Amino acid sequence: MTSYRFLKASEAVAAPAVAVAPAAPVVPPPLVAPQPDYTFSPASRDGIGKFFHGREIAHVMGHPAIGWLERDNREQEEAPTKALALMKLKPDAVVADIGAGSGYYSFRISTMVPQGKVVAVDIQPEMLDFLKKKSTELSITNVEPHLGAIDDVKLPANSLDGALMVDAYHEFDHPKEMLASLFKALKPGGQIYLLEFRGEDPKVPIKAHHKMTEAQVRLEFEGAGFKFVHNDPSLPWQHFFVFTRP
């Protein structure tokens, strides 16, 4: 019969020591430098040398170009009457015309919002002087000239039902800040109506820096928090984008 015996304490065999590896040092993740909002390089002939999302910002069309803005054949070239109909504005809407210039669109919108108003925003006092004079001549009382800044529309928060930009956004030299100020000024659900000459179409007789592609527009506006609604293709030369503030 097998016999069992417990070991005495003096007979016990110690377990072999297990070497404990030193803890690996905690290595912090590499620091990633934040991407700059803007980059710079020598200016091209039609640009200012400042880039936003890879797009060189174009030179500003100054107040001496009022004659071009008011040209007689603009209806044939751009179909602004059709563009205005695409906005589908309510009669009491408050709409900002950003980069209003001579007020070509502002005064036409004013008849569409008889119980509302048009805030004609520009950074050039000479443009606003022209607007004021024309308002008096036309006896229009619901167009409000408003001096903005290069980086801020300077409008109260949640004050706009819509904002229109016609062939102007590509010239904003602080587009990120302008989009942020527009986002703030729009009511939730408010819409941006953006017209830009089609950069994809070489037949549009406009300099490349004064055109934009749909991909570029969506990159910049969606990056600023706006929601893309649609791009109507029915105008002769221009995109007609609608974005909304969520």
Textual characterization of the structure:
The chain has helices spanning about 65-70, 75-80, 80-85, 105-110, 125-140, 175-185, 215-225; strands spanning about 40, 45-50, 55-60, 95-100, 115-120, 145, 160-165, 185-200, 210, 225-230, 240-245. By secondary structure, it is of the alpha/beta class. The model is unreliable at about 1-15 (pLDDT under 50). Helix 4 links the parallel strand 4 and strand 5 (about 115-120). Strands 4, 5, 6, 7, 8, 9, 10 and 11 form an 8-stranded mixed beta sheet that branches. Strands 1-2-3 form a 3-stranded antiparallel beta sheet, with no helix packed on it. It is globular and about 85 Å long. The protein has one domain (about 70-245): 3-Layer(aba) Sandwich (Rossmann fold).
Poorly predicted ranges (pLDDT <50, ≥5 residues)?
Answer: 1-13
H/E topology pattern = EEEHHHEHEHEEHEEHEE
User: Structural class from helices and strands?
Assistant: alpha/beta
So, CATH architecture? 3-Layer(aba) Sandwich
Largest sheet composition: 8 strands, mixed
Chain-averaged pLDDT: 91
Instruction: From the alpha carbons, calculate the radius of gyration and give it in angstroms.
Output: 30 Å
How large a portion of the residues is in β-strands, by DSSP E?
25-35%
> What's the quaternary structure here?
single chain
- What is the general shape? globular
According to CATH, the fold-level topology is Rossmann fold
The number of distinct structural domains comes to 1
Number of strands: 11
How far do the termini sit from each other?
87 Å
